Amino acid sequence: MLNFERDREQALLDYLSYLGSRDAVLNYHQIQGLLYAMACSPEQIRPAEWFELIWLSEDPLFDDMADARSFYQLLLELYQHIAEAAREERYRPGAEGGALTREALADWCDGFLTGHQYLEDIWQVALDDLDDEQLFDAVGAALDWAVACAEGNLGAWGRDESDTALGGAQLELLQLLADYHAVHRHWRGGGRRGDV
């Protein structure tokens, strides 16, 4: 993986395995989806803000502060990797951290929807300001697809476990996400930088 080395990914997966056994955090694919939504936000979202969204537990989870800092740093690196890949239109949802599966893609969509819902007000302001019906429809289509995937309601793909069907579903999502990320480019490119 570019900019997120295999050993760094494994270190993050090890932390997530430990934290996941305590039902403390979203899983890896959900976190990727969440971070993709943060990277596509019309306005920049500070890491301290999205970091809170990955937790399912409020209990202290690290006995050692160095482990907590290391975990946070790994998440920052993953976020930067996803943001860069999104900018260059080479990000592939659900593919990192092992082979692509229907469950991985559904989890990715679940995290993506969590992130978008958190940013809903920002998106509403940006879409209203851009006043582009095509972009509005594209964002709606991406969200509808993600909801259907997260709920297991993607028609024929939901019944077809083949690699071809899964690859086709991922390709369809990639096309929708390119349009979704276009809002970020249009908003930033127009010099719009408020504080919604």
Architecture blueprint of SSEs:
Blueprint: H1 6-20, H2 28-40, H3 47-51, H4 65-87, H5 102-118, H6 120-130, H7 133-150, H8 156-159, H9 163-189
Helix pairs in contact: 1-4, 2-4, 2-5, 5-7, 7-9
Can you describe what's shown?
68% of the residues lie in helices and 0% in strands. With 196 residues, it is mainly alpha-helical. Helix 2 packs across helix 5 (102-118). The model has no long low-confidence stretch (mean pLDDT 83).
Q: Can you tag this structure with a few keywords?
A:
196 residues; mainly alpha; globular
Structural category is mainly alpha
Q: Determine the mean pLDDT.
A: 83
What is the N-to-C succession of helices and strands?
A: HHHHHHHHH
* Low-pLDDT windows of residues: none
- Distance from first to last alpha carbon: 34 Å
Q: Percent helix among the residues? A: 55-70%
Number of helices: 9
Bulk shape: globular
Q: How many beta-strand segments?
A: 0
User: How many strands, what sense, and barrel or not for the largest sheet?
Assistant: none
What percentage of the residues does DSSP assign to strands (E)?
A: under 5%
- The whole-angstrom Rg is 17 Å
Summarize the structure.
With 196 residues, the protein is mainly α. It has helices at residues 6-20, 28-40, 47-51, 65-87, 102-118, 120-130, 133-150, 156-159, 163-189.
